[in-house]
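Dear all,

This email documents one entry for the complex benchmark we are building for the journal club exercise. For each entry we list the sequence lines for every component of the assembly. Then comes the predicted three-dimensional structure of the complex as a token string, followed by one or two observations. Please use this as the template for your own entries, and keep the labels exactly as they appear.
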Amino acid sequence: MINFNKFYKLFNLISVSLVTISILLLFFKGLNFGVDFKGGTLIELRASDSKITVISLRDSFSNMELGDINIKKFGNENDFLIKIEKKDTSANAIEIIKKDLTYSIGGSFNFRRVENVGPKVSSELLKSGVIAIALSLAAMLFYIWIRFEWQFSLGAILALFHDVIITLGLFSLFNLEINLSIVAAVLTIVGYSMNDTVVIYDRVRENLRKFSDIKIFELTNISINETLSRTIITSATTLLALVSIYLFGGEILKGFSLAMIMGVVFGTYSSIYIANPILVKLRVSQKTILKDETN
Amino acid sequence: MLYFSKLKIILISLLSLFFIFISFSNFQDSENSLISKRINLGLDLQGGSYLLLEIDNEPVELQKLQNTTSVIRNYLKDKKVNFTDLRIEKKTILFSIPEQDIDVVEKKFLDKESEINPYYNQYKSHQFDLIIEANEFKLKLSKYGLIEIKTSSQDQAIEIVRRRVDEVGTNEPNILKRGNNRILVELPGLDDPMRIKSLLGKTANLTFRFVTQNSNDTFGVEMLKFEDTTSEALVSKRIILSGENLLDAQPQMNNQSNETVVSFTLDRVGAKRFGKATRTGIGKQLAIVLDGKIVSAPVIRDAIVSGSGQISGNFTFQSATDLALLLRSGALPAPLNIIEERTVGPDLGQDSINSGIFALSLGFLLVIIFMFFKYKVFGLIANITLLINLFFLVGILTIFEATLTLPGIAGIILTVGMAVDANVLIFERIKEESKQEKNNIIAFDAGYVKSKTAILDANITTLIAAIILFFMGSGPVKGFSVTLAVGIFTTLFSVYFIARMLTSFYVVRNKEKVNLI
């Protein structure tokens, strides 16, 4: 048996500092929102002429007076991702860009993907993304509250906040782009982290019923250990699937799978080191669960 | 938990075979296949364009206010009410009347049968909200009046959009209402939406009006620019003919001038009016005005009574074709703005499919290997379950002809990773039970029973996330939530029926064995 509970204090300290750093990052550095949430134009360009480089593209774009432009390589071959921040793009803006580019670097390229999001739509998407995440947290809180006691509900929700905030903090730290699929990833993280926490909580509850003389500090440790091999195996298989998406699923799914990988790692960690210490702090005992059942 | 009746075994096997069969129908030619259903590929996988259009209802509102103002004017004149200051200000119609007439006029506006201020029974509201301050009447479009305007212009616009898109002839376009002022256009397989965008960006409001020098024209005049030059002309506001009177329009080569023109045919009413106007207006210039700009303004040489004519105006064949198309499909009730566009080229779509399938196969393989080494025979059972689970998932998506997107494929891969969770929970529980219980059958039974709540809770939480994603997410992300949600159900089914059945076969045969799992 591993004594996870010996490190409750230490890891709580680490978690609190990680969450604090993440919040500071989110507050001061902010997130790198993609066109979905900030509006603007995104073009994925494939060049068939090896003379086309980031530099030559930057030169041709700087003559078009389109405002802030971000050009970078995207995956391999001759693929580039061009982000234009200008928001009031008219209906034929893309056509004009295409013409101008043909004029300056020749016609040996094609637009593989074009995304053009107006300011109204982007702010709506952002709003619905935030609502979706908030709603899912509330729904989880509610569900656990019904199935368990409020102490469990609080522990699970704190673990969720921990995972979501640290994942977003990492996105801020590494300046990774937040787009619609990241919101999907965050929601899935919420589901996964919850899933993990629930399995351990379920065991804690079962053990609480079984043993009246074991303190919650010990009891959580027993429960963590009993479910440990399941925790490891499920995280491992999920990570195997996610890593294979990250490595081979194409550029578009990279951000999504990366967010998920972070979420699974932190979700597994928080189920052990956030969700359980909370139960200890709240002095959960056999009485806590029996009180409800006699009612 | 380990007993299965013969009937149950047969049913489960048949069901599995059915879904395997359905899944494979995706890979056959639809003509040779018994089942014509298959999974639709999302725009991000097959390539295509997604356009979100917003109707700019401002002009429609203004038009409504203007029309109502003239109705009010006629009514007040008719009733010999001495009104003053009838005007529109900040989207409000204002006018003042003498004290003694207020009651009558107010009644007229608040009457449920009122033709000036229609009453909507379903909303229990008039079209206009009325405020009377001293002698002044203020009429403002009510909340439901605005909704009425929006929904009716959306109804008209979607019809016109559909006609224009159909005329261009893309395969299976998807045109849907969004909210009460937006229209979603999905064009599978179209990798350059330029032409459609420019066609949808035009209102195509066509009018024929006389050019005049007299600025005191009774109908009012306005200065309009020519389409391709900077010159201007004074045009009467009197509309002789509008696009509504057009029966047909086609691009044509004019043999005499050797230029491309748009020839049109008018309906009976239009032909009559056009004939009369051209007869009386010989020698005058007739301006052809499209969306507030003059396309051309030819001088009338003869009366045109045949009900057909030509529009010239420096057209290329393409622009003449497009103008003819716009005129045939009719004018939009209000301008449309493209507020969101997403276009994926077909080659990127194919790349996404390839890498998605590869990642799926690899993820599946890795999980299978891992499970086999961890649990041996039971790993094999879990793997068979996983495979059948995949067929269930694909089969259900096929039956519902769901749309598969790239994030949707990610959802399937994630399902593969997480689907083994339920089996793992059960197997680990059985291991624990086996430590105290030497009878294999009892231990296995206990394992299944005791792991149930954890499995259920764990899957319901994921399902909650998927459902919220489905309602809040858009496009490709929605596809992810669908596969995730369906995956949860197929996983639970395959774990509790298929894996349990296979486990029971094995355990019953090896019940004497020690350390079975």
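Observations: Chain A has twelve helices and six strands. Chain A touches chain B through 69 residues (CB under 8 Å).
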